[in-house]
Hints:
The protein has helices at residues 10-29, 33-43, 57-68, 80-89, 115-124; strands at 48-52, 73-77, 101-104, 107-111, 130-133, 152-157, 163-169. The chain is of the alpha/beta class. A 7-stranded mixed sheet has the order 2-1-3-4-5-6-7. 27% of the residues are buried. Mean pLDDT is 80; it is low at 1-40.
Amino acid sequence: MPHLQINRTPARALAITLSALALAAAALTVQPAALADETSDRDALPTVEVYQSPTCGCCTLWVDHLRDEGFTVNAHMVDDHRLTQIKIDAGLTRELASCHTGIVDGYVVEGHVPAEDVARMLRERPDIAGIAVPGMPIGSPGMEVGDRRDPYDVLAFDKDGNVTVYASHHQD
Length: 172
């Protein structure tokens, strides 16, 4: 087998390095300001730890939704027994439960909560344990079925069991 020979002279290496730096500098100078602002906002978002069943496709679609909206997500595939225990430890009741549970910056995010509501919660820092979309409403992130959009609420809950409506979607 013939060996690839690389010209490793210092002058050649310097020329390649300078060319690469020039290309990188050019790419940075043409980056639109809006994209730069969006990137810095996305970098500021904390990582979401998501616990889900390895057999649930809609959970994976919700994780993709969060990533598309700029969140870093660590998805943990766990069995049903472990997932139930995570929900109990997070203070979730049966009425609030859905198919996956996220933990982000001290808050619980249960079910198919839109990324915009997660970001709002992190911006506003309300005195709650977390937010939830109970069940699996059609049209929520990860539960898209064609053009169908069922109305649903995102619920806020606290450690004392109080539940209020945090946001409403598809109420038309």
